[in-house]
Amino acid sequence: FIMQMVIYSPLGEGFLRRQLGACRLPAEVAQRIDPLFAKVVERAQKVNPHLDDKITLFLKEDDSVNAAAVGRRTVILNTGALSLPNDQLAGILTHEMGHISHKDTDLLLAVTIGNGVVALAFGAIQLFVSLLNMLVGFLSRFHSILALVGMMFSLAAQLFAFLLNLFQQFWTFLGSLATKYSGRKQELRADEFAVNCGAGKGLSRVLTTFLEEEDAQIRPAAGLLARFTATHPELRARLMALADLGVPIERPELLVSPLNSSRPPGRCV
To answer: Do the beta carbons of residue 25 and residue 41 sit within 8 Å?
Structure first.
């Protein structure tokens, strides 16, 4: 609980921004982006009046066209996204506002910290069993019966450590699958939020560009496990979801997947 409170505080959020390499917008970038972002926030607050008034945009030196929501008051834009026209940039930024609106970042942090606590608990149990095994081993030197007990306990401790490690790996894997499944749903909800804010067309154009780039590349087919472990839905699925919401798709023929290939999960915007 204390860790959650620290991370959700302005101090913790600032620490996360520094870890990600985000900084304030330079003056020449702010001149173009600040008015655009102000409109994005205004439209988002009309859809969700409970959004924080202090949501701030930061910039990250990264050539990829992407953005991210951090904590409850931070949106980080990659420098690679600055090449986009304003409507597409607004689509990406509004999508990230959707994550903040739905508190998706809260869930991710809660799961991450929760898994850390569980890992510490597993480590504490293993340490306790190891210390107990050492104590029994020491006592077994003083009597033959204790030596037999010590040997049996040592074998049981090794078996317990193996099973505990196996369970920890299974727990981590299962938790990862659940988190990523939830993350894919969150992406679709954030897309829907962008549509409700009037930025669906710009977002659709960005995703269409990404899909065109993917189809221009030769990639191996994505297996079932890759689909289950993906953090984002496939681009075609996202575009079809936008189409279901009434957003016009500029190149609807792209929604038909090539017969000889299966694309990997979509880009991370």
So the answer is: no
